[in-house]
Amino acid sequence: MYQYDEQDHKLIRERVAQFRGQTERYLAGELSEEQFLPLRLQNGLYIQRLAPMLRIAVPYGLLNSTQVRRLAHITRKYDKGYAHFTTRQNVQLNWPNLEDVPDILAELAEVEMHAVQTSGNCIRNTTTDQFAGVARDELVDPRPYCELIRQWSTFHPEFAFLPRKFKIAVCGAAEDRAAIRAHDIGVQIVQNRQGETGFQVFVGGGLGRTPIIGVAIRDFLPEVHLLSYLEAIVRVYNQLGRRDNKFKARIKILVKALGAEEFARRVEAEWEQIKDGADELPPEAIEWSKRFFPQPAYKSVNGGHAEAVLRDQAGSDKAFSRWLERNTFPHRIPGYQAVTLSTKPTGIPPGDVTDRQLEAIAYLADEFSFGEVRVTHEQNVVLADVEQERLYELWQAARKHGFATPNIGTLTDMICCPGGDYCSLANAKSIPVAEAIQRKFDDLDYLYDLGDLHLNISGCMNACGHHHIGHIGILGVDKKGEEFYQIQLGGSANEKASLGTVLGPSFSRDQMPDTIGKILDVFVENRQPEELFIDTYNRIGLQPFKERVYAKAS
Amino acid sequence: MPKPAKKPVGAQPENPARLIVDGAVVANQWNLLSLDEEAEISAASLAPGKVILPLSVWLELRNELQARRGEIGVWLDSDETADLIGDYAGELPLIAAHFPLFTDGRAFTAGRLLRSRYGFTGELRAVGSFMRDQLTYLKRCGFNAFAYQGEQGLEGLLDSLQDFTDSYQSAVDQPLPIYRRRSLAG
Ligand code: HEM
Ligand code: SF4
Predict the structure, then answer these.
(1) Which amino acid residue places its CA nearest to atom 38 of ligand 1?
(2) How does the average pLDDT of chain B come out, rounded?
(3) Fold category of B18-185 in CATH
(4) What pLDDT, on a 0 to 100 scale, did the predictor assign at position B42?
């Protein structure tokens, strides 16, 4: 994990002081609402339906147990005792007082945390694979690059007032678990024929009201050029991106307007001028960043034995075996496994955790996973380095704290935005829809039989809940002041990313669970053995689903 | 670079009596001519003294004004990119960059490129609606002069130039990103 040195501490302290001054000026009437807006957004502070909302940065989703404990303390002292993990791998508080925010930021700074650039028209928190460093399908650990991108983008003087928000994600594995094609820039780590590390660079992805899958503008960028290339992209965007219409201001619109080829040509021309400059990443800089992500002190374990013990335990305990099946992930080190703590038992808003649960997470991390925690973009929490021998013990502890719902990757592990319960932009509530679907599909055997299935819900077209890239996406819409829900099918977020297609007219909230049931029936009836929902959908298309869902009752 | 689609609405830059230059409050010596006056401007009609011309006017009159080179500056609107001045930047004593809205961040790039790519060493002046809270960013992009509009106690703003005393990435004021300073030092 990256560790602050004196310079990081100083920068963050200076930021807290700056924001304290800004808040005081605002409260004293010296800064207008309009002037304060971008300043507070760049410090993570929204003004929402019920209260301000504070978004705390978790760089590439990585936390240590001390930080998690501090979050618990902050939710208790300044909020209502819970926090929310987001699809951006950040943490949100829903009820802080505006006046307290400088103090919250000061408390965060003490544990090397902040809320810098978690919102506003600037480069946001860089995100990555929650299994970075441990996944077997990983080519290169993305975290050292993420950290270098974090440093490059933090307080970037040229890019603090871009036309619109700007999100970068990095993936170092064969399977894209970071949804890089749904980001303004997606960086895929690759190797060329000579075995050199480099990057495939995607631009212009994004969700919101104009969802677009990013396109590759470069297939191999040598690693020495990562930052200069990013700088070239953002510089072209800062100069040419539209500023007259906020809905057309994202880089995806510029890429589309110019055409990917022309956009790439301009980026290359800009990059030619800076590629050999100060932003080069010499090998020693990369080595330096890698030092912050050392391999933890793994025990040398007889992998065969550990697996056998595990099989025995699973064999004699069905519940454990279910959890093992769904909530753990293979590890590249023999004798270890990664564990996902589910924040999605039925009836809890996805991603919500209480202060006590945060403390439990910190404890579990210390006890089982070298004190380290990761936030996933599916709003869960990962303990990446758990000894197989201790999985049973961890499972029992996780159960006690409500984290062992064995539903990871299934229908009920849904991504869901705060929706109308908290968000002033919402067209409809989303949390009650999630809950109603969870209640209807509570039979684990059925869920497992359906296999991996991503259901994503957003309360409006801003798409915070990633509905476009869910296999099943649900979008809250407003019809003459009433809440309705549109269904989309066929989205996906991985290396074969695609956008969902609208099924047809929308449904009332009451109709939603049954309608999802009909969609699942069509899937089950049409699937080939072991086929996943998305594959069946791609094979049979929208029509059979449409016919069933909109069939007139006879 | 071609012109971006459209520029957002915002006021034309004005001529405040005082401004901040190189960390001190000084009297404004320059008269910025706004685009509203563009139609009437010609080399002959230009009043004596230090003037800042809109880019389009300056591009047209540049040759005729060679004799007055030391007292002719130019200002860029936010949809005008630095490459439109290009290497001429080296000849100019002053370039101003306009913020029609403080949220329009294009002039940050213009400033940085004028300094680091086009060899501009004169006064780089922010004009328009930028904020105090942007001073350190502006400074890092090479701006050394800040012409605020409206009533402001300029002396009270000077502190904001020091909001950040260090930085992560390279910019005009800091040639090396922090990873180079750290990894190569240690
Ligand atoms: C409750 C306060 C929130 C507000 C006011 C808000 C606002 C917005 C807006 C306006 C957009 C559209 C931006 C655009 O397309 O340019 C957006 C997109 C997004 N937001 Fe939120 N959001 C909120 C909460 C969240 C939460 C809790 C999450 C995560 C769970 C989230 C994650 C996202 C994501 C992933 C996108 C899509 C980004 C893209 O277009 O690529 N937001 N949000
Ligand atoms: S998708 Fe809409 S309703 Fe949901 S959090 Fe985003 S802005 Fe709010």
Answers:
(1) A207
(2) 89
(3) Rossmann fold (3.40.50)
(4) 79
